[in-house]
Recover the amino acids of this structure.
């Protein structure tokens, strides 16, 4: 599914569909089994819906006979008031409305309410019930539900932090949003707003960034939240794994020649980062100790994570006048000179970095000359040694002309 | 003059020990360094994994570097002692003869000359190797230190020296390792395994082949040159040892200072980013279910109070609606009964909740 541009996918290419695909597929299969088996066994009321919808199940019109009535509500044991009135217009405009690819009826989600009278409310408070209800989303949206099981939100919920996001917190419940941009006009900023419900400060920062400013103008090339934090499989960005992989995440776009050419941005940024000390170390950590936190700088440590500004902006943390402060965040004693030791994502050349280039050319000359000299000597030496050995073995006694070459051996 | 010896003493215990330290530190430096120079290579990653991660690998690299620096300082003063106090000749200094020997050997190898050149105590190959080690250690030592502590270095040098040092460190390492692999390994491991640097002794055959001139001079009694008299040695040592000791102390203290200078070695972790979780409202009720104007009217929490029995006014009560608890049971969906009603009989509802006169018609 793409939103306006094939470059960005709502589900996020990064974790799901890139170089890690092979590893991930295996992982996904394992997780799928792990999750589906308990669901199938433990929650038969949900599983029953997986066997294909029952054509005799109540229609939405039947439900709306009562629930269209305004002002309907009930008090939960927790003393919360749960509104029970549904605006049929909201249902119709939602992604589960008449435009949906398959008919979705109320009881497909509310599958414990198959008829009237309804059973008593099964939970103590609304949130507990809502989190349980979000399991039914997986009956149809299986991939997303499986992805979500591994997300930081799902882990937080499992750890008892019920305020962490579940399906309906981002997608809405009766008013579930469209995400398919080809069918419906979808504003990518809606997604930012969905995240902003809980992550308001970050969303505010993002809207100030070069990405956010462009996204507000409707530019489809810039990332919104889910391009870096894949919507369902969202990882804890504070984790060592996320940190170590984050440069590759930035490189997805910033090493893309075609995309960067549009904005005249260098595509060397990733390669030059990896070539330098920080990048090399981070790469090694990623390969050798992916779970270990390292304080070696990744992109976001210098450029910022959400409020990324172009290096030409006066407020940018990587603008040359601000660079020393940025370096000092990790190297407290750094001075102006120190900042110049970073080549600013440039490859060294005579004009920009003459000393580095001079050293490079010195070795470009010295290494072949030295090794060439050695190789010529050793090569001829090998030739002579073998020839002497051959001569000795062929004429062990004869000390004639031939033996004069190896003559010094038996002097 | 004397019996033909089958074996000669070539290296004393100190030289052999120096070589052993150089061997260990160089190999460790080469392995732990090359894996950092080629981090995308799988062999490198395997070695890093075996060494217990990149931080361990770097620590090992640093320790070996310090060993090599200390060895170098020792070597400087040891050579100084041999030259000044023991008046040993400067047999390692390259000269014109070495160029001639090199050319002659090449010609001999190519079959343009019948006999190999006769070479002195250190032949040109050994001299090349010795001075390559001197040059390499200087370059690697200084550039390596610049990389180890760039913050300290850039107090004195422009920033561009750091990437330049990195470039030099990398290429010098490649040059050094390849040189050793080609030059050293061929001459003392493959051509024939020359164990004299470990045993201290060299055979007559090896002498004839590699140090024919030295052999002649030994046999003629010209070599080794005699030591100066004990009194002069003592006098010279009294001058040399305190002076060299002071200089060595200065060098050791400098080494200690620069390697324990903490500026770049400690780095503070990057500052945390913005507070991630700051919701505009707690998730949960209401989830945009009712029509908007309705949501405004419905309170999120109902104030608990003890109401009196309410009359039934919202619907008529007939056969179809007789089962009150179907809808109004405690925890029911529509106007649930209070929890203390749980034990009440269903038929008793109208006792307290009478029919209202105005019954709304749906």
């Amino acid at each position: 599914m793409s939103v306006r541009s094939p470059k960005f996918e709502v589900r996020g290419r990064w974790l799901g569909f890139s170089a890690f695909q092979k590893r991930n597929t295996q992982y996904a299969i394992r997780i799928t089994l792990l999750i589906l088996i308990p669901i199938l066994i433990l929650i038969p009321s949900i599983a029953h819906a997986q066997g294909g919808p029952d054509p005799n199940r109540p229609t939405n019109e039947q439900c709306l006979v009562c629930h269209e009535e305004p002002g309907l509500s009930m008090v939960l044991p927790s003393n919360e008031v749960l509104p029970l009135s549904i605006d049929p217009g909201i249902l119709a405009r939602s992604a589960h409305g008449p435009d949906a690819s398959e008919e979705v009826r109320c009881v497909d989600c509310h599958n414990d309410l198959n008829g009237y009278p309804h059973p008593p409310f099964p939970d103590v408070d609304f949130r507990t019930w809502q989190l349980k209800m979000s399991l039914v989303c997986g009956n149809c949206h299986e991939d997303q539900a499986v992805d979500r099981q591994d997300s930081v939100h799902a882990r937080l919920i499992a750890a008892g932090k019920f305020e962490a996001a579940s399906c309906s917190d981002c997608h809405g419940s009766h008013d579930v949003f469209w995400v398919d941009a080809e069918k419906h006009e979808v504003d990518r900023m809606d997604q930012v707003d969905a995240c902003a419900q809980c992550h308001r400060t970050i969303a505010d920062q993002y809207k100030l960034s070069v990405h956010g400013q462009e996204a507000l103008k409707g530019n489809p090339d810039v990332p919104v939240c889910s391009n870096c934090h894949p919507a369902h499989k969202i990882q804890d960005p504070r984790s060592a794994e996320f940190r170590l992989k984050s440069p590759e995440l930035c490189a997805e776009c910033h090493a893309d020649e075609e995309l960067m050419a549009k904005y005249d941005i260098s595509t060397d940024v990733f390669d030059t980062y990896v070539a330098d000390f920080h990048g090399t170390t981070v790469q090694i950590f990623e390969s050798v100790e992916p779970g270990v936190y390292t304080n070696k700088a990744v992109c976001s440590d210098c450029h910022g994570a959400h409020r990324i500004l172009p290096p030409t902006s006066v407020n940018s943390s990587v603008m040359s006048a601000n660079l020393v402060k940025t370096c000092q965040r990790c190297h407290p004693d750094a001075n102006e000179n120190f900042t110049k030791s970073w080549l600013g994502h440039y490859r060294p050349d005579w004009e920009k970095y003459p000393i580095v280039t001079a050293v490079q050319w010195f070795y470009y000359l010295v290494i072949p000359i030295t090794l060439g000299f050695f190789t010529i000597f050793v090569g001829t030496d090998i030739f002579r040694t073998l020839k002497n050995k051959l001569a000795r073995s062929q004429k062990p006694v004869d000390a004639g002309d031939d033996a004069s070459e190896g003559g010094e051996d038996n002097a | 003059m004397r019996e033909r010896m089958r074996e000669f003493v070539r290296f004393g215990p100190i030289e052999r020990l120096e070589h052993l330290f150089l061997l260990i530190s160089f190999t460790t430096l080469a392995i732990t360094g090359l894996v950092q120079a080629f981090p995308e290579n799988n062999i490198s990653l395997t070695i890093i994994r075996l060494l217990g991660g990149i931080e361990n690998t770097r620590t090992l690299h640093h320790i070996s570097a310090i060993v090599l620096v200390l060895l170098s300082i020792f070597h400087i003063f040891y050579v100084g002692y041999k030259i000044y106090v023991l008046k040993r000749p400067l047999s390692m200094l390259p000269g014109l003869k070495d160029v001639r020997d090199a050319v002659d050997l090449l010609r001999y190898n190519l079959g343009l000359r019948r006999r190999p050149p006769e070479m002195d105590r250190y032949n040109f190959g050994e001299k090349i190797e010795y001075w390559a080690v001197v040059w390499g250690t200087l370059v690697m030592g200084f550039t390596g230190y610049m990389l180890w502590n760039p913050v300290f270095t850039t107090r004195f040098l422009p920033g561009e020296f750091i990437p330049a040092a990195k470039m030099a460190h990398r290429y010098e390492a490649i040059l050094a390792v390849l040189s050793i692999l080609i030059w050293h390994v061929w001459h003392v491991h493959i051509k024939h395994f020359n164990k004299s640097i470990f045993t201290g002794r060299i055979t007559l055959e090896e002498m004839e082949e590699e140090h024919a001139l030295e052999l002649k001079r030994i046999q003629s009694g010209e070599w080794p040159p005699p030591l100066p008299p004990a009194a002069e040695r003592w006098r010279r040592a009294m001058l040399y040892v305190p002076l060299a000791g002071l200089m060595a102390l200065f060098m050791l203290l400098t080494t200690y200072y620069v390697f324990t200078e903490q500026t770049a070695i400690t780095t503070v972790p990057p500052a945390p980013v913005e507070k991630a979780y700051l919701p505009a409202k707690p998730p949960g009720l209401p989830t945009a279910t009712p029509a908007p104007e309705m949501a405004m009217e419905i309170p999120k929490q109902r104030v608990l109070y003890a109401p009196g029995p309410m009359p039934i006014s919202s619907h008529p009560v007939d056969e179809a609606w007789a089962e009150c608890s179907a809808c109004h049971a405690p925890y029911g969906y529509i106007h649930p009964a209070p929890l203390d009603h749980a034990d009440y009989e269903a038929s008793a509802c109208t006792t307290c909740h009478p029919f209202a006169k105005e019954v709304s018609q749906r």
Notes: The first strand of chain B starts at residue 7 and ends at 9. The two ends of chain B are 137 Å apart (CA to CA). Residues 54-84 of chain B form the longest helix (31 residues).
